[in-house]
Amino acid sequence: MVYINTTHAFENCIPIPTQVFELRGLLVIWNTMLAMFSIMGACRTAPELLHVLRHHGLFHSVCVPSFIEQDKVSGFWTWLFVLSKLPELGDTIFIVLRKQPLIFLHWYHHITVLMYSWFSYTEYTASARWFIVMNYCVHSLMYSYYALRAMRFHPPRFISMLITTLQLTQMVIGCAINVWAHGFIQTPGRSCNISPMNIKLSIAMYFSYFVLFARFFYVTYLSSTARKGRRIAAPTSKTASTSRNDTLELNTMLNGKQTTKVKAQ
Fold first, then answer.
1. What pLDDT, on a 0 to 100 scale, did the predictor assign at position 139?
2. For 177-184, what is the mean pLDDT?
3. pLDDT(54) > 90
4. What distance in Å separates the CA atoms of residue 82 and residue 88, rounded to the nearest whole number?
5. Catalytic residue ranges
6. Prediction pTM value
7. What is the signed CA dihedral for 194, 199, 205, 209, rounded to 10 degrees?
8. If you average pLDDT over residues 46-69, what whole number do you get?
9. Cβ proximity of 190 and 184 under 8 Å
10. Measured by CB atoms within 10 angstroms of the end CB, which terminus of the chain is less buried, N or C?
């Protein structure tokens, strides 16, 4: 609530459209740093998940928190992942200063991921190894895309579609992991290190994300408005690509305007 109230109050404090901050240089640095952090996180956590799946199977990957308790490298990057959800709130500062609409998806995503990550870490939730690896991997591509856009490069449209597709896939896998975890804790004689409350919170979060990103995918790439906007924008794409809307296009798209970008988990 403090985060939500503060951001909306700050947004209202900035005087009308005349005072808009470009911040392109800072955006390049910010997105590049987050991209590098996510790439390193993926490289340091994904091998542990693959090793567990190959040698111990699905049950171990969902129910045994060895990635925190036994693997020091994966445990360290898990800790960094949890901590990173706080500075990632800095995305909101750019939205406010650049006078972008602060939409529901943005603050809902940030605050729920932050709260769930910290809650899960206190429980050493075993299934979190899946969520952390997926998030690192998707963010690696997403923030790299953001950085290129901020640098005025123009990645092909299929890249943004790929990012959204990966986000949707992440939500489906997240729900599936929770279904498996529920089945494991119901199986007599098996101990699964995930609480029923955690499963409920996690599946509610992932399902809500799936609905929001599915709507985004439809509005951005499949709707008649998106197709019409693409035809209209084509002759002036060079001009549009250098505007202040480049790096936070999800916010404008979900308010009915043209975009080619995604905002993630």
1. 96
2. 96
3. yes
4. 11
5. 109
6. 0.81
7. 90
8. 97
9. yes
10. N
